[in-house]
Structures are given as structure tokens and as C-alpha cells.
Amino acid sequence: MTGPRIAAGELNYEGIGSTEHGPPPDVDCLVTRAYIGEGLETYRRVVRGVFSWQLQKRAGLRVRADSGVVAPGARVVSGFGVGPFRINAPCEVVWVRRPVPGGGPQSAGFGYGTLPGHPVRGEEAFEILIDHKGVVTIQITAFGVPSTWFYAAGGALTRRARRRITSRYIRSAQELAGTGTGG
Q1: Residue ranges per structural domain of the chain
Q2: What is the residue-level pLDDT of the chain in tens, covering all 183 positions?
Q3: Fewer beta carbons within 10 angstroms: which end of the chain, N or C?
């Protein structure tokens, strides 16, 4: 990577990279899976969007990244909110799985972990899967704990915000697939 990093500090949680193969023991993990569309072209189109930060951008987040494409070690700061009520969420990509040539069942995606300044300490992954019948789904896996007492105090609000952004990611993937926004 060239140039200054957009976020400082080091990954700040246990189980780095574990959204790729399963969360660490004794950690609450949220796994959400949703239908995106059909066919290899749909799969490839959505994967291209995921690897160019379009999933986050189309979900309404302001995205600043070290790199225009997802790569191991890339740092990204996603922001939501308005003015002084904007929350920035700095992360670092900890694993990447690229699509393989040809068709067949496979998945592609990435996971990123939190950096200091993020409201949570944990990890989130975005995977696009295609099965042997050509059905394309998105799987979002996330685990974490509030990073400060302030975010911990907003427990119900935090859970509601997480559900909302997850539904926005799903709609974003459906838009990338060209299947609309779903229901």
C-alpha cells in the first residue's frame, strides 16, 4: 500500500480472521443469510461490487478506503449519521476469498476487523455464495462487543442499528445483482 493509512492503530479484538471459519468460542455471533438472485453472471456481478466497496456505499455508508479494491491489510472507514452525529467505523481487511474460475458451488468475500475508534470490537464478513443449482445468496457474519461504556449503554439502540445496516447490506447486494431491493 502506498500513501498514509486512513486509520491508525491495530486490530483490537480476539479471534482475528475467525469469521472465515467460525467465530471464537463463547462469542455471540450473528449470521444472516439472504437470497440475492440466480446464475453465474449474477454471482460475478455481486462479487465485483463487494470487492469494490459498493456493498457498503449502496447501503448508504460514506466509505473512505486505502485501496479501491478489497485486499488483505486494506483499511476502510465507513461512516454514517450527519454532522456532529456522524459515527466513523474504522476497519482492516483480515481475510479475502476470491472467486475461482468456472462455475459450480463456491463463495467469495472478505472479513474485516475493527480498529480503535470503531463503536464495536469485533469482526464482520461478507460472503457471496452460489450453490450447485445456481442460487446466489449473501451471508453476513458478525461478532463483537461494544468498544466503550457509551456504546454498551445504548444496547437496544445498537442492536436496532445493526439489524438496519444488515438489511441495507442485503438490499445493496440485491441491487448489485439487478434483482431490486427485495422485501
Answers
A1: 27-177
A2: 455 577 878 998 888 998 998 777 777 788 899 999 999 999 999 999 999 999 999 998 999 999 999 999 999 998 876 666 777 889 999 999 999 988 779 999 999 999 998 878 899 999 999 999 999 999 999 988 766 656 655 666 666 777 788 899 999 999 999 965 444
A3: C
Classify 60 in phi/psi space as left (phi over 0), alpha (psi -120 to 50) or beta: left
Sheet holding 62-65, edge to edge: 29-38, 135-146, 120-130, 106-114, 87-97, 75-80, 62-65
112, amino acid identity: Y
Fold classification of 27-177 is Alpha-D-Glucose-1,6-Bisphosphate; Chain A, domain 4 (3.30.530)
| Helices of type H across the chain | 40-51, 54-58, 149-153, 155-177
Q: What letter represents residue 109's amino acid?
A: G
